[in-house]
Amino acid sequence: MKEITKDTLWRLLDEVGYDARKDAHGNFYVMKYADADFAHDLVVTYSIDGDWLRVTGEPRDFAVAEGDEYTVLDVLNAQNMKRAAPMGYWFNNRPHFRYSVRLCEEVSEEYVKRDVIRYGAYSVCMCFANLGAMLEKKGVETVSPY
Predict the structure, then answer these.
(1) Facing residues of 46 across strands?
(2) What are residue 64's DSSP bridge partners?
(3) Residue 145 is assigned to a structural domain of this protein
């Protein structure tokens, strides 16, 4: 496949066993629930933007004290400088991580399932686990569902 449609993405999400739902913007999302690695539920969204397939992670119920958002930004920037992907950023008073793959060359559906859908979700979840650990080291408290 050289491009991906929403119908194909929906089918591939189902084939990897993800219980995906459609959001108000027509994107698909799956929930990754809080655990010992990151104490916040994550919404992992799959979206198509031209020939880009994007996997974006956003925490629910995440807040920091006023002024601590700069510490979060500092940690996000430090993480961005150490790796190529996913990219971390601050939007709507929450950190986000986005893994993007441009599908401009012919690739197999297996590649999309393994290296974009599965790896994208895994990598953004690991970025949040690292973020949580780094914030804890810096003494930044976040709102938690626990």
Answers:
(1) 28, 55
(2) 142
(3) no
- pLDDT tens for 56-109 read 999 988 888 888 888 898 888 888 887 777 999 989 888 999 999 999 999 999
Cα distance between residue 38 and residue 115, in whole Å? 23
Q: What is the CATH number of the domain that holds 104?
A: 3.30.1460.70
- Give the pTM: 0.90
- Please give the tally of structural domains in the chain: 1
Task: Record the tokens describing residue 60, joined without a space.
Answer: 């629910």
Decide if 117 contacts 18 (C-beta within 8 A).
yes
Number of neighbours of residue 118 by Cβ within 10 angstroms? 15
Distance CA 109, CA 1 (A): 7
Helix (H) or strand (E) holding 6: helix 6-15
Tell me whether residue 1 is in a domain.
no
Estimate to the nearest angstrom the gap between the alpha carbon of 126 and the chain centroid: 9
- Cβ atoms of 90 and 50 within 8 Å: the answer is no
Give the range of the structural domain holding residue 27, as residue numbers without chain letter: 6-137
Q: Of 45, 117, 63, 57, give the one whose Cα is nearest residue 87.
A: 57
The verdict on residue 146 lying in a domain is no
